[in-house]
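Sequence design from tokenized structure. All designs in this work follow the same two-part layout: the structure record, then the generated sequence. An example of the structure record is given first.
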């Protein structure tokens, strides 16, 4: 572990819950950070508080609470094939980067294991921190709950399905329900476990029979007219589910599969991307019932729509970056394009926003920082020189950046 600076202890002693980054895309689930002093410029040696080697391989994003950072990873078992894996949760010190504990959650036998995509890992879903507990999810391999010292409280590996290209989507919490999508090759469904016991609360099959069923989406919980809705996109459909029962509230049909981007919500609209092969971005009014495909889609665009990175909504503007590096700014209410700019690179990570800036991480380890504005302005271009598919976490006045081999804490002096 390379420690460039340790002058952060006093910063970590006065954290508030609003400063934490408890899961994929932060406290709001939509990539919004309330940090005011995140760095704009860095390099492998500049503004690096620490750099910690992470064992194994994983593309889960960091989750941060106070002075702790949590990751998942997949470590090949010694003496066996590369498909025999120890699926692990790791806790690091946010102040120093030291690994405080590492706990095996599941052991994957390589013989029956499904093959994964070259851009995937066996540990891609992001951990989730809530009420002194850590929830880790390995897709079809299972889900577990730990206390923050690393003791396993429960595990559930009962929900079986046939994955395509491995696991991907992260879990969310709504009330007592830990909810995630199980969109495999056959009979895709959405599931909820009891957050306290791990027992199955409900499973709901997708109500559209798609030609290609698999997807990797992370749900988003919203409230519409006082009712909680869990929005989950899959093959050929997006639906809102009642988090208490799993009942489908509404759905919109489309043609698409391998859906990865997480929905965002604002201005009374849910924004979703429809996946391969010809992606669209839909703005949906979520106040309907049943099949609302022809009645509640406010606008649609097919211009430079991402297949992997999630959109981000800042004020009245919706920003996206496509997998091949086309960044866009659209009017959220109408879909009107304010600008589109080629920023170079290939993109998988979802962007985050803080203090008037949007951070766009490409797969080669270069972050393009742009101004959140109706006029395109690039502010910085920062390279760590390492492959990077994970999305950022922002907490403690710092960016936590996971690359293929390392986790960085990037912060102004």
């Amino acid at each position: 572990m390379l420690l460039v600076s340790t002058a952060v202890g006093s910063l970590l002693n006065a954290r508030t819950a609003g400063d934490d980054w408890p899961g994929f895309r932060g406290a709001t689930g939509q990539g919004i950070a309330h940090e005011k002093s995140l760095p704009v410029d860095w390099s492998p040696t500049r503004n690096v508080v620490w750099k910690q080697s992470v064992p194994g391989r994983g593309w889960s994003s960091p989750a941060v609470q106070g002075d702790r950072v949590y990751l998942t990873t997949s470590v090949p078992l010694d003496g066996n094939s590369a498909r025999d894996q120890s699926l692990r949760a790791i806790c690091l010190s946010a102040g120093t980067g030291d690994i405080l504990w590492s706990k095996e959650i599941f052991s994957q036998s390589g013989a029956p294991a499904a093959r994964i995509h070259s851009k995937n890992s066996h540990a891609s879903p992001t951990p989730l921190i809530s009420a002194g507990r850590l929830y880790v999810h390995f897709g079809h391999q299972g889900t577990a709950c730990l206390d923050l010292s690393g003791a396993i409280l429960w595990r559930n590996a009962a929900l079986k399905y046939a994955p395509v290209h491995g696991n991907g989507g992260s879990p969310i919490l709504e009330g007592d329900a830990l909810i995630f999508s199980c969109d495999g090759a056959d009979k895709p469904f959405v599931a909820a476990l009891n957050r306290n016991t791990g027992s199955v609360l409900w499973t709901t099959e997708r109500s559209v029979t798609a030609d290609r069923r698999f997807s990797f989406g992370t749900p988003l919980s919203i409230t519409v007219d006082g009712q909680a809705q869990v929005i989950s996109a899959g093959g050929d459909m997006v639906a809102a589910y009642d988090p208490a029962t799993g009942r489908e509230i509404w759905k919109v049909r489309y043609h698409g599969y391998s859906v990865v981007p997480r929905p965002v919500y604002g201005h009374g609209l849910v924004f979703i991307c429809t996946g391969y092969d010809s992606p669209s971005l839909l703005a949906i009014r979520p106040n309907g019932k049943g099949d609302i495909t022809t009645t509640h889609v406010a606008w649609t665009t097919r211009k430079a729509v991402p297949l992997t990175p999630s959109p981000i909504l800042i004020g009245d503007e919706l920003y996206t970056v496509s997998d091949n590096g086309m960044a866009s700014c659209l009017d959220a209410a109408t879909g009107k394009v304010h600008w589109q700019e080629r920023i170079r690179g290939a993109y998988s990570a979802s962007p985050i926003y803080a203090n008037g800036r949007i951070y766009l991480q490409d797969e080669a380890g270069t972050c393009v920082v742009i101004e959140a504005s109706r006029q395109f302005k690039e502010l910085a271009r920062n390279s760590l020189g390492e492959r990077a598919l994970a999305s950022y976490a922002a907490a403690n006045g710092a960016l936590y950046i996971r690359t293929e081999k390392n986790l960085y804490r990037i912060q102004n002096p």
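The radius of gyration is 20 Å. We note this feature because it recurs in several other targets discussed in the main text.
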